[in-house]
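re: ur msg from earlier - yeah i can do the pyridoxal-5'-phosphate complex, just paste it... oh wait u already did. ok heres what im feeding in:
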Amino acid sequence: MEWASTTLAFYGLGAAALATSLVTLRRRLELSKAKHRTLTGHARMARRVASLVPFYDYDDSRFFCSDDAPEEVAARRRAGFERLAALYDTRFAETIRRTAEATDGISDLQFTDAYRVPFQYGRVVRQHLKSAAFVQSSAGVMLTDLDGNQFYDLTGSYGVNVLGYDFYKQAIGRAVERVGELGPVLGPYHPVIADNVKRLKELSGLDEVSFHMSGTEAVMQAVRLARYHTRRSHLVRFCGAYHGWWGDVQPGIGNPLPAHETYTLKDMSDDSLRVLRTRRDIACVLVNPLQALHPNASAPTDSSLVDGARNAHCDKDAYAEWLKRLRAVCTEQNIVLIFDEVFVGFRLAMGGAQEYFGVRADLVTYGKTLGGGLPIGVVCGRKHLMKRFRDDRPADICFARGTFNSHPYVMAAMNEFLRYLETPRARELYRDLDRTWNARAQRLNRRLRDEALPVEVANMSSIWTVCYLRPSRYNWMLQYYLRAEGLALSWIGTGRLIFSLNYTEADFQAVGDRFVAAARAMQQDGWWWHDPAATNTLIKRRILKEMIAHRLSPKRDCTQRR
Ligand SMILES: Cc1ncc(COP(=O)(O)O)c(C=O)c1O
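and the outut:
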């Protein structure tokens, strides 16, 4: 009898253990299924693979025919390259000289300089098409460098510049006047802060506000609050989405440590919703609405543009539908839904992505333009989520400070920005935004098509990316032709063009003329020649072979970087 009950208990325990392992296994499988099939979707593997990529580069002759182009094409490319180099050396002489002097002491500049183009081409490019990192003034939609050259600004200052530089210059000027009497007193608030809070609550539709010094910090705080209130550990981010450079939101390449409490899931996927429904450790879901332009892909940069596979298309309705479903699952599972609107807030619509897509979040982060031209990060949120202490547990707090948060000058510049949104001029600027920018993108694409140029743009309102129709290894060269035509891009090149909303039709026409001229010159110089048999996959495969060959015999054709 005793033996029988012991055996029964034993089997019972075994069955329970088996059931638990099966549930765990099922959860693991669900998680695997919810990962995007690319390396971007597998952060740990991506870091491992990245650590295996060997450095090698092309010498002066291979540079022009790395795709085995015929000699005549390589010669045309060389002539075009030399012409560009001569133009850069003369037209941007002083700016280049000052940049070269400063680069050695500015680590950021060394980094951006190294990652402007695919690394195999970097040495030759850096030698001849030198970086010109300085500008001296801005006016309207133009920037002027140290040589007096004027450029149409397509950098958008990383997205800060929504209303045009003149606006921010005035906002900062007025802010200095308004709070000058108080000066940089930190701790006690300048009264202007109360007005900011009132306006932010109205614009976000949320109950409370906290101020920080950058978008990265705002995201850190939003995630920390979500963890504190749900008492759960994990955050979910979607494949490819950027949320600043804090470790937990950057689990892949770029972060020396693995992010153990982050799940990177497929955007716009039922598999991801299933994970949200079944896991009990998820505190929050972070959404960067910019991903609507390229779901599951990282921000496009020219440094990885080794072929023509860049792809982008914004399906606003489909993304809105996805956000609605995500919202419903988060509500059902008590998961905090965070919209990271640091980039798109106040750009897509006055009420940001919440208004644009018609979905409300529990916490929203803002930054960039909201500072009226000065550094800022803001969290707006529902009351119960913003609270940093518990009434019944006085020692259980959610700590967040920051010496410079609520800086009077920043608060006053923010107030200028927020007040401006109420003016008829601002309302006019925001009216029919999508129609305006979609029409401009279509017009440019029509012009490019009419001239049979193998390039087109995709956009999400005023945020654009350049896509390439040829499986070419040299698409990244377009950034240098654009610069020669007086169009300023940020260091990620043609991956992201950011327009300020004060671009007039005439400004835009001029940008279009220059864009087409740049593409035409690049075409004439032979960079878009391609072997008819070449495909993007074949190009990637060949590059992989090159890498393996260099990994196996590192000295072959290999030059030291810099
Ligand atoms: C969506 C998003 N979140 C967070 C950040 C980080 O903001 P910051 O650079 O101010 O730290 C950025 C910056 O580009 C961003 O685009």
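cool cool. Confidence is low (pLDDT under 50) at residues 557-562. ping me if u need the other ligands too
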